[in-house]
Design goal:
By secondary structure, this protein is mostly helical. The protein has 14 helices and five strands.
């Protein structure tokens, strides 16, 4: 894996589907890292509304409102329009143009071997995913990344194959359509593996809206405490007097992420000796979790009370993203012979063209 600190290309691109209000899993898995990256890199973060259509094309009625909720949570978490560019994918039509051009050169076999293609078909068996859009969404992802000439794409392990496909498409494009003086038009990005702490949902499985086991970043304190009260714990600790093991307890995983060292020491000592009960341990987890999300909720209220502020930020990001994308597309069109400034072929003397 490439060392981001040694790269001269400091541009980072990543996106998130608009699923509505974000939960702790979204924050720990991606958003917290984005907030750090904006301090050291040129970051483009987009709301992937076209990608939402690949699986939810039958009912797109919530995409607009869900996109706004995502934008509010991004701003609440600390993404700063002065330090990064936030925009909506469909507001930059150049993404679709580059996707179309990539689809002309991408072999079908490349898409069929993407691991998540068959996995998602199985996981979403109730939906008809036998569409070109679903098969080809990794090509759209490639366009999302390459149109900004990104150096890095922050991803989890399960998305590395998509970045590799993006690199293959860039390689094929650059071979077929070199720029002036054989220059490389689309640099190959590197996956930036994000160390993601294990964050379980209230039932012990991965936190997900699909499992209804999530805690929203915007959940009020009473809701957070109630959800944690129902959270599963160490299955071996049946009675209050039984010692437990925080390393196999979902609540212990929350403590490792959100609690300070002093609280962690109390959790380990008290749980292993049965000096504390699970209710008390969950209360400490709630205390520290609330400390983390309370400042976010305060920032969110500012935009909830005046959504126009968030919309203005997104509109400014849209404009900046379009300008950058169009700059790349001019090079792409020229290389592919699609420039609008083409000249008709010169005719020999006396040739009429009839």
């Amino acid at each position: 894996m490439a060392d981001i600190s040694k790269s001269t290309n400091k541009r980072v691109v990543s996106g998130m589907r608009p699923t509505g209000k974000l939960h702790l899993g979204n924050y720990v898995g991606a958003l917290a890292n984005w907030v750090k990256l904006q301090e050291t890199h040129e970051c483009f973060f987009f709301i992937a509304d076209w990608h939402a259509l690949t699986t939810d094309y039958a009912d797109p009625s919530n995409i607009g409102s869900n996109s706004l909720e995502v934008a509010l949570d991004w701003l609440a978490a600390g993404l700063d329009p002065e330090r990064c560019t936030m925009f909506v994918q469909s507001h930059v039509p150049q993404h679709a143009e580059l996707h179309l051009l990539f689809s002309m050169i991408t072999p079908l076999g490349w898409l069929e071997r993407v691991p998540t293609y068959k996995e998602q078909q199985q996981n979403l068996a109730t939906k008809d995913l036998s569409t070109y859009g679903f098969l080809g969404y990794p090509v759209l992802q490639s366009a999302d990344i390459l149109i900004y000439k990104a150096g890095f794409v922050p991803v989890g392990e399960d998305q590395v194959a998509h970045v590799e496909l993006t690199r293959e498409i860039a390689r094929r494009f650059n071979h077929l359509y070199p720029g002036k003086d054989r220059t490389v038009i689309l640099p190959e990005p590197q996956p930036l593996l994000t160390p993601t702490p294990k964050l379980p949902g209230t039932d012990g499985r991965k936190m997900s809206k699909s499992y209804d086991n999530y805690i929203l970043l915007s959940d009020p304190e009473p809701v957070v405490r109630q959800k944690l009260k129902t959270m599963v714990t160490d299955p071996a600790r049946v009675r209050r007097t039984d010692p437990g093991n925080p390393d196999v307890c979902p609540v212990g995983d929350l403590h490792k992420i959100f609690s300070d060292k002093q609280t962690l020491e109390k959790v380990y000592a008290g749980c292993r000796s049965a000096a504390i009960g699970c209710i008390e341990c969950k209360g400490w987890a709630a205390d520290n979790l609330i400390k983390t999300i309370a400042p976010m909720q305060e920032r969110r209220r500012k935009y909830e009370e005046n959504p126009a502020l968030a919309l203005q930020i997104i509109e400014a990001g849209d404009a900046k993203a379009r300008a950058s994308a169009e700059s790349t597309m001019k090079e792409v069109r020229d290389a592919m012979g699609l420039s609008q400034n083409y000249k008709p072929p010169e005719r020999a003397a006396g040739e009429t063209g009839q």
